[in-house]
Amino acid sequence: DAFRAFHLNPSFVQKFLKPLLIGELAPGEPSQDRGKNPQLVDDFRALRKTAEDMNLFKADPLFFSLYLGHIIMMEALAWLLVSYYGTGWITTFILSCILATSQAQAGWLQHDFGHLSVFKKSIWNHIVHKFVIGHLKGASANWWNHRHFQHHAKPNIFKKDPDVNMLHIFVLGDSQPVEYGKKKLKYLPYNHQHEYFFLVFPPLLIPVYFQMQIIMTMIRRRFWADLAWAFSYYMRYFIMYIPFYGVLGSLFLLTFVRFLESHWFVWVTQMNHIPMEIDCEKHRDWLSAQLAATCNIEQSFFNDWFTGHLNFQIEHHLFPMMPRHNYCKIAPLVKSLCTKYGVHYEEKSLGKAFIDIVGEKDMVSEQYFEILSLADISVCTVEYSQSKSRERCTVLPVTSSLMRKKPTLFPVNPVFFEYQSGYSPEGPLSLLCSHASRVQTPLSMFQDKRKAERQATHTERFPLHIIRLLVQQLLRGEAVTSQMI
């Protein structure tokens, strides 16, 4: 299914693959496909055949012509604005917003050509892709293809999707904060990542990180054609604006435009993936893998234009070569298939999608901090004290790296024992007792099921007397189940 999703003419490509075929696995050999639902796979392939019969993979030339036209019109409008009204602050700000809009929309358009979703022949898609991403945006088509196709093949999979490789700036998903917390990796204060996200990611991704990576990639890998296209963009830009702003002023203007575009790009691209499941490879079928990592945004004319139709992220990931104006036509059929097999199809409003980006980083930062705070305790006992009417539960380290300094009492925050409705209370309790004497509870039990967490709406607390009874039960080496609550 992945192979079919990325090739306009699979039979032609398979001719090149035939000499590379070593052999087929015997029926009894281990295979990553054994756990997949064959009926779901067959039904998805039938859905793709239905889409082909409905001509949903056929592009509308008028749609893409008008789209390219409105980008060129904004470029011309920006130049006319500064030509007639000068370089005042207000004019420059309006000019910057227009240029940032044209850059963002050119980004969505190059995405269409990069996915071979406009022309019937791959060669024409590649040529126009180089023009749009190179001459209109100053970027590299080969750099984009290399990153983006990896993302589509394995979305939200650590070490396979470059879009979730955050270079130790952020920790994501369920497993990464546990790994970083246990190893005490703290390149940055991850417990505050939901706060410094606004200062690091949206403003710096395009003007700093992407620009440096694109230039270095084109030079190191000798993408000379891409470099020539990118050079044509900068030459055109400076010819247009140096007469008004000078060399330094034009550089500042370009940086500010990239700054504005970066905010637009980050919020749109992150809202479909970051709040979803981010984990290691699970070898799912194509439909299940894409649905676990993507979500949709409600359709409207503005949302379609603002996101480049990436509000239909699910349909785009299932059918990357489908022209975007047909996503709305295939969406009801995808929903029906997901309902049939109980695959979660998530759709939300644009505002909620933006909020969920920061909310996800907040939840992960709390998880990382709680793991990190207990990483030093190797063996501990649990003590209880009662002062007046207040009962307190503390964790006393017996042998740990902290003991080399000074024995310390660790008060357990009652909020720490909060759990979402539908959770097994063994989750937070296992974290408390994972280092307790005579109790071997794996720290991995702390990894709560995040899907349930996102859907939970009610928060409860464990009464302290319940905590005491359960901890005593664990210290005696006896099993604890949710029925004891």
Automatic annotation (TrEMBL):
Protein name: Fatty acid desaturase 2
One Pfam family from the record: FA_desaturase
Signal sequence residues: none
PANTHER family according to UniProt: ACYL-COA 6-DESATURASE, FATTY ACID DESATURASE 2
Bilayer topology term: Multi-pass membrane protein
Organism domain of life: Eukaryota
InterPro entries: FA_desaturase_dom (IPR005804), Fatty_acid_desaturase (IPR012171)
A GO CC term assigned to this protein in UniProt: membrane
Transmembrane intervals: 62-82, 196-216, 237-260
Location relative to the cell: Membrane
Ranges of residues in domain Fatty acid desaturase: 88-347
Main localization of the protein described in the UniProt heading: membrane
